[in-house]
Amino acid sequence: MGLSTVAGLLVLLVSLVSAQDPILNPPTPSTPTNQADRQFRVVYEWNVLDFAYPTEDDRARALYHGAYIPKNVLISDCKPHANRLYVTVPRMLAGVPATLGYFVRPENNGRTDPEIVPFPSWEMNKRGNCSALQFVQGIAIDKYGIMWAVDSGRTETLQRGTNHVTCPPKILLLDLKRNGTVVWRYEFPAEIVPSGVNYLNKIVVDDAFGGFAYITDNSGADPGIVVFSRRLNRAWKVRENNSMRAAQNAVRFAVNGTELNFSIHIDAIALGPYYNPHAQGDLDPQVDPLIGNQNYERNVYYSPLSSYHLYSLPASLLRDPEFVLKASPRDILESVTDYGRKSSQTDGMIMDNQGELYYGLLGEHSIARWDSYTPFTAKNQVVVARDRTHIQWVDGMGFDHEGYIYAITNRLHNFVAGKLRSDEVNFRILRAKTNALSYVETPDNVFNNDVRYKYDGEVDNSLVHYGAGVSSTTP
């Protein structure tokens, strides 16, 4: 397939964008959107993934010594920022030279199979150096341009053997405005995230009270949501067996004809917009004296990969270490909301700043969307993209500042089975215009008269108004 064909390839069969009510939805980038932009298109694709080695001799040495084995490299998550698209490359197999990297975002005539540039550097990706990154699968970028990178600290998770790296699991905060300078480092205690057996997967960040991260650990022995507070420099774990463990009726499914038997616990995670759990109608911020943090809530949505259901817990409970410490299993269970059934299993999932949840449907080769202010019914779960060739295993997703959503499809079902073919396209990044932004741009202030978007905190107009002057640094 030629590069010009790739650039023009249409994947989406259904329009993404419906009419927006200007009263019920906060303003988003005002760039006009044409019909073609509303459809998912392939912007990158690879048969195998390569890295930007300093010289060809360096690449040759890595190939010779097994430090780089092309068929063992897979991309999992993606997050756009400025003119870069950051990707994670988990070390599931031997021969992965870097676990975090980037490339320049799409250009009309640019290369569609770019080499991955290790980030922040080659040294910070050195296998076996516990100060460096060992196994990064999930990343998040907050509204201040700080990347939160979760490192499981272990390597070759799909291979048996004794030559595996086992480092303390950690989270690093990297300042993207300073080319990845580490501004925070935290190692998780063994009683929360044990070395060698954890599987830290997806992450979302919440800027409340100094910054929190909610991280899914889908390890077989101790799955749950790991909560990290930057202000407290402390972590704890929320466990709930009914909603966070694999459902036996969902462990068997097929992707593009490949039969799978996966018992995988909590995986996908998303952070919803603020709402007032006590209000029956709109509040007037001019006269109501009780607008405060206790009146405004966010939901943390999640789903095991081996499950048909979508669940949530209130973010306020996850942020409270005392609740987690003292709550009984029944207390936590009673705090869980079960929204009901999806039509298939889900790996990748993300919320935008309008309260729209996007998620993959693995067995249906689809991407779906749900307005989180409506019931989670089959009618309200809208399939926005379906394609058996180009949408095989939707993994990480991200939003840029121009109103585009990005999604990785990586044929993980074939990768795990060792069935990837180097003469076929295996990895793709799709993009579509939604005219929304990332959930991290959700306004956190009392500014909009709609109760759904009215929050406690200092007013920051830059979060709720985007005029014609908004631009991107994308080339």
SSE inventory with pairings:
Blueprint: H1 3-7, E1 41-46, H2 56-65, E2 78-81, E3 84-88, E4 100-104, E5 117-118, E6 136-141, E7 146-151, E8 170-175, E9 181-187, E10 200-206, E11 212-217, E12 224-229, E13 234-238, H3 241-244, E14 252-255, E15 258-261, E16 266-271, E17 299-304, E18 309-314, H4 315-318, H5 321-326, H6 329-335, E19 337-341, E20 349-351, E21 356-361, E22 366-371, E23 381-386, E24 394-399, E25 404-409, H7 412-416, E26 427-433
Antiparallel strand pairs: 1-26, 2-3, 3-4, 4-5, 6-7, 7-8, 8-9, 10-11, 11-12, 12-13, 14-15, 16-17, 17-18, 18-19, 20-21, 21-22, 22-23, 24-25, 25-26
Fill in the keyword field for this structure.
475 residues; 4-stranded antiparallel β-sheet; mainly beta; 7 helices; single chain; disordered N terminus; Neuraminidase; Protein yellow
Secondary structure tally: strands:
26
Largest sheet: 4 strands, antiparallel
CATH topology: Neuraminidase
Strand content: 25-35%
Could you explain the architecture of this structure?
The structure is a single chain. By secondary structure, the chain is mainly beta. The protein is 9% helix and 30% strand. It has helices at residues 3-7, 56-65, 241-244, 315-318, 321-326, 329-335, 412-416; strands at 41-46, 78-81, 84-88, 100-104, 117-118, 136-141, 146-151, 170-175, 181-187, 200-206, 212-217, 224-229, 234-238, 252-255, 258-261, 266-271, 299-304, 309-314, 337-341, 349-351, 356-361, 366-371, 381-386, 394-399, 404-409, 427-433. Strands 1-26-25-24 form a 4-stranded antiparallel β-sheet, with no helix packed on it. It starts with a helix and ends in a 42-residue tail after the last strand. Belongs to the major royal jelly protein family. One of its GO terms (cellular component) is extracellular region.
